[in-house]
User: Fold this.
Amino acid sequence: MAERQIQACATVLRSGVYVLGPQVRALEARLSDQLQQRETVAVKSGSDALLLAFKSLGVGGAAGGHPEDEVLLPSYTFAACAEAVIAAGARPVFVDSADDDFLAPLAHFRNARTPRTRAILAVGLFGDPTGLPELAAYCRDEQLHLVEDVAQCLGAGACGADGHTRPAGSWGDVAAMSFYPTKTLGAAGDAGALAFRNPRHAEKARLLRNHGYQDGLHICLGQNSRMDELQACLLQVALDDFPAAIARRRAIAARYLEAWADCPMQLPRNAAGHAWNYFVVVLRGPRERNALAVQLATKGIDTRVYYEQPLHLHEALRHWQGTGSLPSSERLARCSLALPLYPMLGDEEIEYIIHAVRQAVGDVNRHSQT
Ligand SMILES: *Cc1c(COP(=O)(O)O)cnc(C)c1O
Assistant:
């Protein structure tokens, strides 16, 4: 932790105010500035933000909606997305990724739509905001709620039909943010936030995050999802560095895309406005993917698999599995690998990674042919 952060923490500790105080209010104001003046509500985690998004909109039986309410969401995403839908008392309906991309395209959401569909959960996976303007227009025409999961794409921008670029998190009825340390805007622990189009929904979220408490009364059933002052204070410091951090992520991604253009692996789409939370490549098969991870580990390069299973294959989600298979998300879970990309990577480390990956990809493809 740098001196600036330590000083900021000391100020909070001396103030004696630890939860939902001036730091949280200041953070909410700054997040509003980032997201087209939307009404922002700070909470304890990105997972809570997703749950409170559905509850504030009244989607699902847990907060005023109907138990048969359906929410369409991609299968190739983090488990918290399905957990939130189910905890809100709604039904998750899983949608496949595109043949040649991580994100689920509009056509797949359209095909999954039924008269019970109330909302689409759009996930800007790995930092890619592509499709948000199109989904926003579709949801507006069809009178569906659009919930944006911007846990991975805060800092990204998407260009609308009018030619204007607007930030991810400003397209839907509500956006759920996570400030888990590995996200584009990271806290020093768990934290999250919501940004609403309609201030009435934001009011509801403010009640829900603090046990429905208002003016001495508990006027609805809520939960404890209060953000603490230390995280709010540290996030303001992180916001000072945020534009530079996103620029650095973009520069590293550009370097990778150029250096690996002729490598026998599928590179992520170089989407306009990408925030590059993760740089995920797709290998020919699971054997090549696993071998690449092992080879890079021997060279001291850490990789991750996002995600080992698409949601519709999770044992715990079997009840909501549906009938058809979702082949693209299944293939991506078997063949994709996240390579290191974060702002603190130095130029020498980047060149080392570039060289090591080129060599290792060549090796694993050669071996799998023989
Ligand atoms: C991290 C993440 C979440 C959950 O956020 P937490 O702050 O860890 O609860 C939700 N959705 C996606 C896509 C994420 O990457």
Observations:
- The chain has two domains: 2-240, 242-368.
- Residues 45-47, 77-78, 80-81, 123, 149, 151-152, 178, 180, 190, 192 surround pyridoxal-5'-phosphate (CB under 6 Å).
- The first strand starts at residue 39 and ends at 43.
- The first helix runs from residue 3 to 15.
